[in-house]
Amino acid sequence: MKRSKQFLAMILTLFTISAGGADEFVNASQALCQKVKSCARESIAAGAEIPPDMIDMVEQMLAGMCVDIEQRYEEIPSGHPLYAPATQCMQSIAELSCQQFENLADSVTPECAEYETQIEAQQD
Fold first, then answer.
1. Cα(100)–Cα(124) distance, rounded to whole angstroms?
2. Largest Cα–Cα distance in the chain?
3. For position 20, what pLDDT does the model report?
4. Which of 25, 27, 41, 52 falls between 20 and 30 A from 86, CA-CA?
5. How far is it, in rounded angstroms, from Cα 103 to Cα 62?
6. Per-residue DSSP letters for the chain?
7. Could you give the CA distance from residue 60 to residue 11 in angstroms, rounded to a whole number?
8. Phi (first) and psi of residue 56, to 5 degrees
9. What is the phi/psi pair of residue 34, to 5°?
10. How far apart are CA 112 and CA 14, in angstroms?
11. Cα–Cα distance between 118 and 122 in angstroms, integer?
12. Are the C-beta atoms of 85 and 93 separated by less than 8 Å?
């Protein structure tokens, strides 16, 4: 799966923003995590160029990914200005097909474009 550096940074930012117990964000991040895992497994099953001895390592990494994300949930409260756009971005990505997900480096969802805009505005 190819991703631009900017898109990868945006995805990592999504995972570092926390819900502080807010179910909508938690559900969105879990759905996105499941989407990433599902698409990675689909790619492996379709014959991705991963040596057989690396597949077990990739599977272990995928299994622990959602747990790692959940451990970061107390960093930013639900009232944070990026909370709603981050949630909407994750929801929009989780609804994509794996083929659409793999092509996100070329174009992001409108919700993620808005999220990017708000991140940039906060950095200025």
1. 31
2. 46
3. 45
4. 41
5. 20
6. ----HHHHHHHHHHHHS--TT-HHHHHHHHHHHHHHHHHHHHHHHTT-S--HHHHHHHHHHHHHHHHHHHTTTTSS-TTSTTHHHHHHHHHHHHTS-HHHHHTTTT---HHHHHHHHHHHHHH-
7. 20
8. -60, -40
9. -65, -35
10. 10
11. 6
12. no
Closest CA to 36 of 119, 93, 120, 84: 93
Per-residue pLDDT tens over the stretch 95-119: 999 988 888 776 789 998 898 898 8
56-97, pLDDT tens digit by residue? 887 788 778 777 766 654 455 678 888 888 889 889 989 999
Task: Express each pLDDT in 31-56 by its tens digit.
Answer: 888 888 888 888 877 776 777 777 78
Instruction: Mention every residue, 6+ apart, whose C-beta is less than 8 A from residue 52.
Output: none
Which amino acid, one-letter code, is at 105?
A
